[in-house]
Amino acid sequence: MATSPAGPGTLYLVPAPLDFGCDSQIPVEDCLPGATLRAAAGLTHWVCENAKSARALLKRIDAVVPLAAPIQQMAIQELPREVHKKGDHGGGFDARGLLADLVAGHDVGLLSEAGMPAVADPGSSVVRAAHDLGAAVVPLVGPVSLLLALAASGLGGQEFAFSGYLPQDAEARRQRIRDLEALALKRGQTQIVIETPYRNDALLQALVQTLQPNTRLAVAAGLSLPQARIQSRNVKAWRALPAGELGKLPAVFAFGR
Questions:
Q1: Domain 10-139 falls under CATH 3.40.1010.10
Q2: Every domain of the chain and the residues it spans
Q3: What does UniProt give as the signal peptide span (predicted)?
């Protein structure tokens, strides 16, 4: 990407395939459009969730569209760990320090480990800082697991809310599920939550045991992968099924009326 000495560069939000942490990977060109691959390949300055996974994705892109520079010569900065733990805004993190290259006129890519950065992932503080610095922000087209799951759920898509991770404590988790379900049933607002893959089965069991029988529950696991599984039925029907296992596939859970 070109640099602009007259002002800041552009911040590109670069989506990543949804196969991070999975046993197998899909061809990157199967989930990222050509325009996204070309834009990403032209960037040499990055802010990312994890430098190692960022370099791995850049290698996958390079196999399809040659990169503008060797990966070893790229400027790659990581978001600090505090942002991962406390969130972009809750801890008062100021991301402007990561955007000196943007201020200098370089185009910068923002990258998370899977899906769209700043959506169910760190990065919103970087986007906010870019706006405050007067830079253009351009989201590139690619997979967003929350919207893919919602579209495939059969639940209402006119009003929905993403509540992230539920509490790990069993009683606190049950109460949170009840609170979200009450909101869903009262307002018709579909509720979307996620979990670390190795806790998927525990969350599914908690949802099936806690939600009311007529509440609809949808589970979308391994989205965009060959082994993707998307199931949507009321809780009464879920309870009649043998206890299944989602394994360690990334999953999105949605419930409502």
A1: yes
A2: 10-139, 145-256
A3: none
Q: Spell out the residues 6+ positions from residue 199 whose beta carbon is closer than 8 angstroms to its own.
A: 168
Nearest one of 31, 63, 23, 11 to 224, comparing CA atoms: 31
Place of tokens 């760990």: 81
- In angstroms, the Cα distances linking 175 to 104, 172, 255 are 49, 5, 15
**Distance (Å, rounded) from C-alpha 182 to C-alpha 237?**
20
Q: How far apart are CA 29 and CA 20, in angstroms?
A: 15
Fold of 145-256: 3.30.950
Dihedral, CA atoms, 96, 99, 104, 106, nearest 10 degrees? -150
pLDDT tens-digit profile, the chain (257 residues): 544 457 899 999 999 999 998 988 999 999 999 999 999 999 999 999 999 999 999 999 999 999 999 999 999 999 987 776 566 766 678 899 999 999 999 999 999 999 999 999 889 999 999 999 999 999 999 999 999 999 999 999 999 999 999 999 999 999 999 999 999 999 999 999 999 999 999 999 999 999 999 999 999 999 999 999 999 999 999 999 987 778 789 999 999 99
pTM (two decimals): 0.91
Distances in Å between the Cα of 201 and the Cα atoms of 62, 194, 245 are: 36, 12, 6
* Cα 111 from Cα 47, distance rounded (Å): 6
Which pair of tokens denotes residue 224?
């965009």
Q: Per the structure block, which two tokens stand in for 14?
A: 């670069």
Which distant-in-sequence residues (6+ apart) come within 8 Å of 64 by Cβ? 28, 29, 37
Residues paired with 160 in a beta bridge: 190
